[in-house]
Write a structure and sequence with these properties.
The structure is a single chain. Helix content is 69%, strand content 0%. It is built from 7 helices and no strands. It is elongated. The chain is an all-alpha fold and 116 residues long.
Length: 116
Amino acid sequence: MSPREPIDIFKERLKAARALRGLNQAELAAKAGLPPASVSHFESGPRKPSFDNLKALATALDVTTDYLLGRSDTPEASAATVGRLHRDLGKLTEQDLKLATEFVDLLVKRGVKENK
């Protein structure tokens, strides 16, 4: 993540996600249940969405709020899977957490090798 201001990241990500889904501002607004002017203001001006509007935009675009906020670089991250993993981490013993971390590292390495 770059040192840009969060509002700049949000504006860029909102535009990118909208383009990824092939929507214009009016179509996104309709899907999110927002006035078209709101999407325009979010993309061009310093106006920030409320929490409810942020969730509506993320749902309409089928991306995570973390992607829109610049906390994740992957728009397609499965919110359900990520949420479950995060929620269940606290239920693991220290030993199981270490094992889970090692397993994730193994999967990442395997994925890197397959993508070469």
